[in-house]
Amino acid sequence: MATYAVHAAHFVLPGRLTGEGYLTITEGRFGAFSTERPDCEIVDHAGAYVGAGLVDTHIHGFHNHATTDIDPAGINDASVALAQRGTTAWLPTTFTDSAENIGNQCEAIADALDERDEGFPGARIPGIYLEGPFFTEKHKGAQNPKYLVPPSYDVFAEWQRRARGLIRKSALAPEYPEAPEYISRLAAEGVVTALGHTDATYDESVAAVDAGATVFVHTYNGMRGLHQREPGVLGCAMTTDETYAELICDGHHVQPGACAALVRAKGWEHVVLITDCLACGGMPEGNYMSGGLPVVMKDDLCYLRNEDGTTGSIAGSVLTLAKGVKNMVDWGIVAPEQAIRMGSEVAARSAGVDDVCGSMLPGRHADFNVYAADMTLAATYVGGKLVARA
Asked: Considering 54, 105, 213, 287, which has the largest number of Cβ atoms within 10 A of its Cβ?
C-alpha cells in the first residue's frame, strides 16, 4: 500500500502525546497526524499506543550472532530478529578485544550495511558503539582483561577508518591520564564518549564530563558506587544535568527501586533504556560464547561460566528493549509515554543519532511500534511495512 493511515488511541509524537487520531504513512515514510479520518486505507490499532521504533544504543548481538563473529550476514540476521521484537535501530556494540579484532568487527558491521537493499526488513544501524578496550581491571565485569589498555586516539582513528565513519560512541574508564584528551578529541568530531567499567572518583568523573563525556555505561553496573564521602562515578551520573545514564531495565542488573532512584535523580529525559544484550538473546537456554568468554544463559539472564561448569558473575542480559519499556511502566516508575521515549527518542539523542531515528517526524522512515494498553508489544513496522504482530 503506497499510502495508508494508522488509527490508534495515542501517538507519541516529538512534541506531545496525542489522543485518538490518525498518522499517515506514504511510500514508507511518516506523514502528518490528524484527528480527522483521512481518505485512504486505515490500519486500525484501536486502543493502542503508537511510538517510534526502539533504538538500542548498547547491545552486543542477538539471535546467536555477535559483533565479535565478524560476520556481516550474522549482523543482518540479528537485525531482522531485533526488528521482529520492536527494536528498529541499534548500535552494534563491540567488546574489549585486540585492536586488530575490533577493527575487523567494525569493518564487518559496515559491510553488513553495504549488503542491504532499500527494502531490508531489519533494524537499521545508525552507528557503532565501542565498549572497551579502554577500561581498568577492578570493574572489568565480562570484559576480557587480557586486552585492557589506556585510551589512544590514534587507535580509535584506525577503527573509525575501517568502520567508514560509523563509530558514534566510545567508552572508557576516566581515571586514565590519557582520558581527557581522548574525550575532547572525539567530542570535536561529534563522537560520544561514555564512562564505565571504572573505579574513578567523583572528581575524576567530573573532569571527564568537563572534557566532553556525556554518557554513563550501564549505570550502577561496573562502576564505583555512591558513598557519602566519595560519590564516585555513580554520584557524577546522578548530579551532572546534561549527561545521559544508560540503564539495563531487566530487574536483575538493577533492582526496580534503584531504577526509580536514578530516574528521580536525573529525570526520565536523561535516562536511556538499554539491553546490553548478548548474542544468545532470542535463543534457548544453554551454553554460549560472549566476547571470547564462555557464558551460560538461564532464567532470563546470562552468567560467566566457570571452568568447573558452575555459573559466575552476571555477564550480560538477554533482554529485549520492548520488554524493558514495559518493565518501567509495570514497576510504576514512569508513564507509558515516558518509557517509550526513553527507549527511542532519548536513546537516539544520547548517541547522537537522533537526526535519523528515535522520533516519528514527517519524511523519516516509518519505523514504529504499536503497544497494547498494558504496554505489551503488539506490532512493529519498518519502513511502513509490518514485520511483526503479536
From this structure: 54
The answer to whether the CB of 232 falls within 8 A of the CB of 225 is: yes
Sheet holding 286-290, edge to edge: 286-290, 293-298, 301-305, 311-316
Helix (H, G, I), strand (E, B) or coil at 100: helix
Residue 86 C-alpha cell reads as 520492536
The candidate with the shortest Cα–Cα distance to 56, out of 367, 292, 374, 385, is 367
- CA–CA distance, 129 with 76 (Å, rounded to integer): 17
Integer Rg of the chain from CA: 20
Which pLDDT band, with edges at 50, 70 and 90, does 75 fall under? very high
Nearest to 50 by CA among 78, 30, 36: 30
Is 299 among the catalytic positions? no
Residue 214 CA to residue 206 CA, distance in Å, equals: 10
- Residue 379, helix vs strand vs coil: strand
Catalytic residue among 56, 97, 276, 367: 276
Using DSSP's 3-state secondary structure scheme, residue 294 falls into strand
User: What's at 216, amino acid-wise?
Assistant: F
> pTM of the entire structure?
0.96
> What's the pLDDT tens digit per position in 193-230?
999 999 999 999 999 999 999 999 999 999 999 999 99
The string of pLDDT tens digits covering residues 4-13 is 999 999 999 9
Residues 288-295: what's their mean pLDDT? Answer: 81
Q: What is the mean pLDDT of residues 227-238?
A: 96
Signed CA dihedral, 79, 80, 83, 88: sign only: positive
Coil, strand or helix at 298: strand
